[in-house]
Specification:
- With 426 residues, the chain is an alpha/beta fold.
- The chain contains 16 helices and 13 strands.
- The chain has a 7-stranded mixed sheet with strand order 2-8-7-6-5-3-4, sandwiched between helices. A 4-stranded antiparallel sheet has the order 9-10-13-12.
- The longest helix is centred in the C-terminal third of the chain and has 20 residues, at 328-347.
- Bound molecules: pyridoxal-5'-phosphate.
- Pyridoxal-5'-phosphate (PLP) binds next to helix 5 and helix 6.
């Protein structure tokens, strides 16, 4: 039998959901159910794979129907014509990341875009050749910068500088980051950090770090895989040189979804920049003249190579439309409330078996709460999974919990905490 105090806590969570101005958005998503179909799972994994919007199926089917009906004419006569398919995401994507519309383009996948950006913004010389990343960078980012240094004939162990937290700490201190930048000074060619660290959930100080990198003459790029759709962003005003993000985590556009890319307009104006080019980066007015000479568009589109994958882009279009309706400021308000509620609930367990490693200050975290588990972390994760919590585990011992404001509820956080309680205090 649940105790009366549990009932009161559950009622309090349900009351918070009743008062949530964004609560109707949950109905726009498919929420996975337990294998016997009797209940919704506790889905707290939107930082890894966002849930499917109900509108996505029709959007993809529409492309297939248009293809069946129109063949090549779909380029101009599909419901959303294919020739400008990426245009339908431009304004919404720009609003999401705080950019001007001509500074963004949806294309490729995240790691591919990181390489395309480094082809332009990582041009090492004998004196200026270092890349600064987090020591706890996502592996793909580590491989990308390692391979760039190697490809340029450099020794990656010298060229790649990895920012480490202080002994016994999990987050990086801004002052320590700035101090490392100063120390390596004008040998730094590129600073490329994640906006939100995938493991700890830490949000970095975009403006300060970008400014510090620029003061040294370096380029500064951001990997926003865990930031886009999670926290408000102002890429243009922060003066970032470039940024890349994927669309399948907080952006709910499906596994492997088409990614986003930002290039600041002070660079897009310079059509002489070195880059890897393809026909979709050419001025649309002369694209079909089929000449051999590349005429780059003075926008972020100049970096796009191929004609857009329309089946993959339609879920992105749908998802960005939902963000546009909900708006980032409202989502952030709810996200902070969900995160604070979850943290308070988990802390109230007073368990010595876990540590919360996500920074506490509002400005330094997004949705995600990272729980370091001291003993047999896999066993705890498996037990949560058995009880229909969908979250994830990252080596060596971190369970990541992400209540996302579009479709998660305070009641989800309450259910999670009760299941965690059961396994921490058997
Ligand atoms: C999720 C994630 C990736 C994944 O890269 P893909 O190219 O989309 O497979 C890369 N970097 C970071 C920081 C991530 O969080």
């Amino acid at each position: 039998m649940p105790t009366p105090s549990v009932n009161a806590a559950e009622a309090a969570a349900l009351a918070l959901d009743q008062a949530d101005p964004l609560r109707a958005f949950r109905e726009q998503f498919h929420i996975p159910r337990t294998p016997d179909g009797s209940a919704e799972v506790v889905y707290l994994c939107g930082n890894s794979l966002g849930l499917m919007p109900r509108a996505t199926r029709d959007a993809v089917m529409q492309e297939l129907d248009d293809w069946a009906r129109l063949g090549v004419e779909g380029h101009f006569h599909a419901r959303h014509p294919w020739f400008p398919a990426h245009e339908f995401c431009r304004e919404t994507a720009a609003r999401l990341v705080g950019a001007r519309p001509h500074e963004v383009v949806m294309m490729n996948s995240l790691t591919v875009n990181l390489h395309l950006m480094m082809a332009t913004f990582y041009r090492p010389t004998p004196d200026r050749y270092r890349i600064v990343i987090e020591d706890a960078a996502f592996p793909s980012d580590s491989y990308a910068v390692w391979s760039q240094a190697h490809w340029h004939g450099l020794d990656p162990s010298d060229a790649v500088v990895r920012l480490k937290p202080r002994h016994g700490e999990h987050a990086l201190r801004t002052d320590d980051i700035l101090e490392t930048l100063e120390r390596h000074g004008e040998t730094i060619a590129l600073v490329m950090l994640s906006g939100v660290n995938y493991l700890t959930g830490q949000v970095f100080d975009f403006a300060k770090i970008t400014e510090a990198g620029h003061r040294l003459g370096a380029h500064v790029g951001w990997d926003l895989a865990h930031a886009a759709g999670n926290i408000p962003l102002s890429l243009h005003d922060w003066n970032a040189d470039f940024a890349c993000w994927c669309s399948y985590k907080y952006l709910n556009s499906g596994a492997g979804a088409v990614a986003g890319c930002f290039i600041h307009e002070r660079h897009t104006r310079n059509t002489d920049l070195p880059r890897f080019a393809g026909w979709w980066g050419n001025d649309p007015k002369t694209r079909f003249k089929m000449g051999p000479e590349f005429v780059p568009i003075p926008t972020a589109d100049a970096w796009s190579l191929s004609n857009p994958p329309v089946l993959a882009l339609s879920p992105v279009r749908v998802s960005l439309g939902i963000f546009d309706l909900a708006t980032m400021p409202a989502l952030r308000t709810k996200s902070l409330a969900l995160h604070a509620y979850l943290r308070t609930q988990v802390e109230s367990l007073r368990s010595p078996a876990i540590d919360l490693i996500t920074p506490r200050e509002d400005s330094a975290h997004g949705s995600q709460l990272s729980i370091a588990v001291k003993d047999r972390p896999r066993d705890l994760f498996n037990a949560l999974t058995q009880d229909h919590v969908m979250c994830d585990f990252r080596e060596p011992n971190v369970v990541r919990i992400a209540p996302v404001p579009l479709y998660n509820t305070f009641h989800d956080c309450w259910r999670f905490t009760e299941i965690l309680r059961k396994h921490l205090m058997p």
